[in-house]
Amino acid sequence: MRFCPGDHDANFFREVSFLADSNITKRALASSLKSLMETKPFSKISVADICASCDMNRKSFYYHFKDKYELVNWIYYTECVTALKSKDYSTEWDFLGDMCDYFYQNHSFYRKTLTVEGQNSFSEYFRDIMAGILSTDLKRIFGQDKALPFYVDFYTDAFLCAIKRWLLEKDCMPAEEFTRLLKNCLLRTPDAILQKFSQEPAE
Question: pTM here?
Answer without folding.
Answer: 0.77
